[in-house]
Design a protein that fits this description.
The chain is α/β, with parallel strands linked by helices. Strands 1-2-3-4-5 form a 5-stranded mixed β-sheet. It has a single domain, classed as Trna Endonuclease, Chain: A, domain 1 (3-Layer(aba) Sandwich), CATH 3.40.1350.10. Strand 4, helix 8 (157-170) and strand 5 (173-175) form a beta-alpha-beta unit. The radius of gyration is 18 Å and the shape is globular. The chain is built from 10 helices and 5 strands.
C-alpha cells in the first residue's frame, strides 16, 4: 500500500469515528469545530487520553481521571494535530492572561488552564496523544502536535494581546474572539450551510427589508 492509499484508508477510519459530533458538543465547541473543518481539519471532540499508573505518578497525579481534550483537529495534508482547549467565558469577566500561566497549582485558575501552566502534564498528554492516534490508526505516521486555545471573551484587549505574544513564543495557537467573528462572517457569505453557527451568522448579516 503506497502513501496515498494509506492516507485514504486513514481518512476513512477517521471519518468513521466521527458520527454526528455536533450533538455531543457544546455550542462554542461546535462553532470552533465548524471553522476548523472549513480550513481542512477533521474534528473529534472530547478526546480522552489513556495514561498508565506510572505516567500519572510521574506528574504527581496518581488518581486523576483520563485527561480530556475539547477538540482534536487533524489536517492530513500536513499531518498536523491541534489539541484545542475551548474557553468561551461569555457573560463572565473573560479570560485573563495572568490566570493562564498561574504558577500556583492549587489555585482555581491554574486548574482551569492546567494544560498551559503545567509543563510535565502538557508534555506527557501531547506525547501520548500522538502515540494513541497512531495506535488507533487514525494517523498514517506520528503527527506534529500543537497546543491551541479558542477564546470567546477576554477580560481586556491587553489580555488578548499578551496571550497572543506568549502563545507565539511557545509555538501554540490562539484562536481569539476576532478570529471567530471574522471566520464566521466569511463562512456566512458562502453558500448555504445548515449548521447552527453559520445560519446564525447569516441571520445577523441580513439587512431587514
Amino acid at each position: 500500500m503506497n502513501v496515498e492509499e494509506q492516507a485514504h484508508v486513514s481518512k476513512l477510519r477517521f471519518l468513521q469515528r466521527i458520527s454526528d459530533f455536533e450533538a455531543t458538543m457544546d455550542a462554542f465547541e461546535v462553532t470552533v469545530a465548524k471553522i476548523l473543518e472549513a480550513q481542512g481539519y477533521w474534528i473529534r471532540s472530547s478526546y480522552k487520553i489513556n495514561l498508565t499508573k506510572e505516567e500519572k505518578a510521574r506528574v504527581d497525579k496518581p488518581s486523576m481521571p483520563r485527561p480530556e481534550i475539547d477538540l482534536i483537529a487533524y489536517r492530513p495534508v500536513q499531518n498536523e494535530i491541534l489539541a484545542v482547549e475551548c474557553k468561551s467565558l461569555f457573560d463572565s469577566p473573560g479570560v485573563v492572561a495572568k490566570h493562564v500561566f498561574d504558577p500556583n497549582p492549587k489555585s482555581k485558575h491554574a486548574k482551569r488552564y492546567k494544560m498551559f501552566n503545567r509543563t510535565p502534564l502538557r508534555e506527557l498528554v501531547l506525547s501520548r496523544l500522538a502515540q494513541q492516534l497512531c495506535a488507533e490508526r487514525l494517523c498514517v505516521s506520528p503527527p506534529r502536535v500543537r497546543l491551541a486555545m479558542a477564546v470567546g471573551h477576554f477580560r481586556k484587549d491587553t489580555d488578548r494581546d499578551t496571550l497572543q505574544q506568549e502563545f507565539e513564543k511557545r509555538g501554540w495557537l490562539l484562536f481569539t474572539d476576532k478570529w471567530l467573528r471574522d471566520n464566521l462572517m466569511n463562512l456566512a457569505l458562502n453558500g448555504y450551510d445548515n449548521s447552527i453557527p453559520i445560519v446564525t451568522a447569516k441571520v445577523l448579516l441580513r439587512t431587514p427589508t
